[in-house]
TrEMBL record:
Family: Belongs to the short-chain dehydrogenases/reductases (SDR) family.
Residues annotated as domain Ketoreductase: 47-237
Matching InterPro entries: KR_dom (IPR057326), NAD(P)-bd_dom_sf (IPR036291), SDR_fam (IPR002347), SDR_family_member_7 (IPR053011)
Highest taxon listed in the record's lineage: Eukaryota
Name of the protein this chain belongs to: Ketoreductase domain-containing protein
Amino acid sequence: MTFLEFVLLLLVLYYVIYVVLWIVLDCNVALWYKSRFGVSLSTMRGQVVWITGASSGIGRALAVSLARHGVRLVLSARRQEQLEQVQDECLQVARGLLAQKDVLILPMDMLQLDKHQSALYSVLNHFERLDVLVNNAGRSQRANWTDIEIQVDRELFELDVFAVVHLSRLVVRYFLEQNGGRGHIAATSSIAGFSPVPFSATYCAAKHALNAYLMALKTELRKLDVTIFAPGPIATDFLLEAFTGAQGGKVGQSTANQKRLTAERCGELFAVALANKMDLTWCGLFPVNLMAYCARNATLTKILGQYMTEKTLNKIREGKL
Ligand SMILES: NC(=O)c1ccc[n+]([C@@H]2O[C@H](COP(=O)([O-])OP(=O)(O)OC[C@H]3O[C@@H](n4cnc5c(N)ncnc54)[C@H](O)[C@@H]3O)[C@@H](O)[C@H]2O)c1
């Protein structure tokens, strides 16, 4: 065998192994590797992590994963009662690593931008520090592109983009002015944030915009850690509250019996991404993971676009394939 043939063989082997990993793993290879051999979550013990949208789904699962390792938490969402339940769950799994004062409940509506500053003061008064902000609160969408009212585009962007950017700016200023420029901003984006899917045009655009805002932040402030965590379909109740195309509309559907990654697994992987300060990671069951890889590669995206019909894409994201 010539040297060239040997190199080609290695290249083919490399791709074969990678494709197999894309099929069997439920997240990107780097995240899977960090979950096994990366920095342990216990290195975050004592840090203060503020999670928005912590009352249910991914936010709740992330809070529980972090609490297990003694990470101090600020839990924000609109519903106090649900936040109290998450607080109880966190204290239970922490098994003595956390006391009640270590899990602060801070109810807030992300859309009330004028309350963001006082919410940040409350966090700092309570803990005297903040290490990580996780922008997780958000709503999805199901609607035909042509039917979406412009008010819906605006409302979705208000919550999924502008509220996140506003709160993040305040926290980044705190990092710059009182923390030597060090700190960590994270957000729950979506695979739809780099690989558009049908019937969620505003949502796809919002998550793309969010990614761009955060990537731009990282280019300006290199000392800052920025994590974009992009899940595929996850088994949460997010479709109950998801936007439609009509103003005031909600999809009101359950995701029960759909093929989706569990919120618990998603929360664990998100926690690993934070502990390892990863910049862009994603998770999802086959074929979502494979699609995410293709979307990151322009040539593969073109090929995928030619063979995936809108029906197939929709089946995948609705957990029916
Ligand atoms: N479930 C999925 O398949 C999936 C996939 C990719 C990305 N995501 C993203 O994950 C994040 C969490 O969604 P989820 O699936 O856990 O759904 P969820 O509905 O269980 O959680 C959404 C959270 O955001 C909060 N929230 C909504 N509007 C708010 C407001 N105005 N102010 C404060 N909090 C508000 C809710 O109370 C809840 O705590 C969202 O940003 C969503 O876009 C979800």
